[in-house]
Amino acid sequence: MDTAIDQTSSGRDGHTAWQSQPPSAIVEFILTRFHEPLRRDLPVLIASAREVETAAHGHALCPTGLAVHLEQIRVAVESHLAKEEKILFPLIVAGRGALALMPIRVMMSEHEDHLENLAKTRALTRDFALPADASQAWGELYRELQRLEDELNQHIALENNVLFPRVMGSDLP
Fold first, then answer.
1. Do 165 and 172 touch, CB atoms closer than 8 A?
2. pLDDT, tens only, 48-62
3. What are the sequence ranges of the domains in the chain?
4. Which residues, at least 6 apart from 63, have a Cβ–Cβ distance to it below 8 Å?
5. Exposed, middle or buried, 171 (CB in 10 Å: 0-12/13-18/19+)?
6. How far apart are the C-alpha atoms of 24 and 95, rounded to whole Å?
């Protein structure tokens, strides 16, 4: 297991290790551990989904529409990351995060949208169910989609449950 992930999942609440870190350290971790890989990995997942859909066309468990769905996720995620990087995170790093209630609420609302998109990914893949005759590429695609889901959940939880409350000085509504 990646030691960086261990830092987000240690302790009873999943975020104990981050409670004592300054918000700027959490932001830096989010940028390198989550934002950079998302930008790198989503186009690869889209291409893999296209290949699997083409190769499995007509198969009862073919994840038809998955590539289009992943492209929609990519667009939404890139827009979200840009807002965090250009608006919210600079406020936080400058020590002005308490002025960011509205951007934080927007980010949290978008996090809900991302979670809904993950649920749709599960529906399109029938909870990552692979047929007995699935190709190696199909299996790898589903493993990578599960990893994406796990990492997005960790990313969202770290922001919603640790970073945002920390910079606002309380639990958020």
1. yes
2. 999 999 999 999 999
3. 20-168
4. 49, 52, 53, 56, 124, 125, 126
5. exposed
6. 9
Q: Which residues contact 60 (CB under 8 A, 6 or more apart)?
A: 131
SS3 content of the chain, % helix, strand, coil (to 5): 75, 0, 25
Type and span of the H or E element at 96:
none
Q: What is the Cα–Cα distance from 58 to 64, expressed in whole angstroms?
A: 9
CA nearest 85: which of 22, 154, 36? 36
Nearest to 15 by CA among 24, 6, 23: 6
Model-level pTM? Answer: 0.87
Q: Say how far apart CA 74 and CA 43 lie, in whole Å.
A: 8
24 touches 34 (CB < 8 A): no
